[in-house]
Design goal:
Number of helices: 15
CATH class of the largest domain: Alpha Beta
Strand content: 5-15%
Bound molecules: pyridoxal-5'-phosphate
Structural class: alpha/beta
Helix content: 25-40%
Shape: globular
CATH superfamily of the largest domain: Type I PLP-dependent aspartate aminotransferase-like (Major domain)
CATH topology of the largest domain: Aspartate Aminotransferase, domain 2
């Protein structure tokens, strides 16, 4: 037994499944999860001292790479002044201003602790603002573990094959209406049937939690039109895409303006911070101004805000997103070459520095085509890559993330490992 295996056995005695978030247990790919001791730049190092090139990036936040000096310094500086006050701080204004100026559609913003809290709050705001009950979500989109949104959700829920979690009451999920990603007609039909009850449409503008799936041309625009016409709000869950695909998120790339947006992951730079923001008139329904209650003991936590602010500041340096795009291109081209040479059926979906290699399918545009992928082959691919020092997400239905710290050499090595692994599959 190596150290990770021993630690996992010990963890399983006191933590359900040995982990604090299900996909970390590697159920979908087999084997024992690596326990991570430390991380630096593009790499993570496990409890046995083995170092891997990392494409999980803490599931998205680490766009600068791990343990970036400036971010650690900012957190250390904040740390000296105390860890939490439960009272407003000047840094929170700076954080709110930063998000508002980064994302055109956001005029006011509230900080919370996790992406889950952000989407939960967005739905409550939408219901409070419109006085309506129902919410449209898309198959395969994941919005955190909010009760009402754990219906045909992506990510861990998808991997484990429990799209509807036990413990969620049917009453809760009855107000969640399901549509197909990239299928405008399915949304039009829901609005035709019960448009007067629909408070909001929520989606990942670029799906990331069933693997990466970009929106089809006209899809986001169509949603904007339908929601506007019917008096429902459009919510972009940019917890993954925000500050990742562009500084202004997916909405900057596609030029569609939602009423509300959710951020997390990169916004906290690896510390627990997320945000919900949008139109000022909508956001002002929140307490203490309005009747929609929302609160948090640690909201706007000084350490998290300091780490997030410094991360976002680093992302305003010129050429950052161009560099991420070039790194993404290098990997995409390399993987496609490796796929061709191996003769395996597979495709790569990518937007900027987030991508997914789907095995066993030649095109993925929605939940159904993502599900058609070969998850067993992915398990073998994952293990083959791990053996060669590449740490991928332990599930076929995830995005891989490239950071600014990944050098061309790291990326070339990854592509070579993929070519070897695919040949062995
Ligand atoms: C990760 C994620 C969430 C949930 O965020 P947590 O911080 O894990 O609660 C919500 N929406 C999307 C799109 C995500 O990728």
């Amino acid at each position: 037994m190596d150290t990770s295996e021993k630690l996992f056995a010990a963890a399983c005695e006191v933590i359900p499944g040995g982990v604090n978030s299900p996909v970390r247990a590697w159920k979908a790919v087999g084997g024992s999860p690596r326990f991570i001791q430390r991380a630096a730049g593009p790499t993570v190092t496990d409890a046995d001292g083995v170092t891997y090139i990392d494409y999980v990036g803490s599931w998205g936040p680490m766009v600068l790479g791990h343990a970036r000096r400036e971010v650690l310094q900012a957190v250390q500086n904040a740390l000296r002044e105390g860890t939490s006050f439960g009272a407003p701080t000047a840094r929170e204004i700076e954080m709110a201003r930063t998000i508002c100026s980064a994302v055109d559609s956001v005029q006011k913003v509230r900080l919370v602790n996790s992406g889950t809290e952000a989407t939960m709050t967005a739905l409550r705001i939408a219901r409070g603002f419109t006085g309506r009950t129902d919410v449209v979500k898309f198959e395969g989109c994941y919005h955190g573990h909010v009760d009402s949104l754990l219906v045909r959700a992506g990510s861990g829920a998808l991997t484990l094959g429990v799209p509807d979690s036990a413990g969620v009451s049917p009453e809760t999920s009855r107000q969640t209406l399901l549509a197909g990603f990239n299928d405008l007609a399915s949304v039009e039909q829901l609005f035709a049937e019960r448009g007067a009850q629909i408070a909001a449409v929520i989606l990942e503008p670029i799906a990331g939690n069933m693997g990466v799936i970009p929106p089809a041309p006209g899809f986001l625009e169509g949603l904007r039109e339908i929601t506007e016409k019917n008096g429902a709000l459009l919510i972009f869950d940019e917890v993954m895409t925000g500050f990742r695909v562009a500084y202004g998120g997916a909405q900057e790339i596609y030029g569609v303006r939602p009423d509300l947006s959710c951020f997390g992951k990169i916004a906290g730079g690896g510390l627990p911070l997320a945000a919900v923001g949008g139109r000022a008139d909508v956001m002002d329904v929140l307490a203490p101004l309005g009747p929609v209650y929302q609160a948090g003991t640690l909201s706007g936590n000084p350490l998290a805000v300091a780490g997030g602010l410094e991360t976002l500041r680093q992302l305003t340096q010129p050429g950052v997103y161009q560099r991420l795009e070039e790194k993404g291109q290098l990997v995409e081209e390399g993987l496609l070459r490796a796929v061709r040479d191996s003769g395996i059926t597979a495709c790569v979906n990518r937007v900027g520095s987030m991508f997914t290699l789907f095995l066993g399918v030649d095109s993925v545009t929605d939940f159904e085509s993502a599900q058609a992928g070969d998850t067993e082959a992915y398990g073998r691919f994952f293990q083959g890559m791990l053996k060669r020092g590449i740490y991928l997400a332990p599930s076929a239905f995830e995005a891989a993330f490239i950071s600014l710290a990944h050098s061309p050499d790291d990326l070339e090595m990854t592509v070579r490992a993929a070519a070897e692994t695919l040949r062995e599959l």
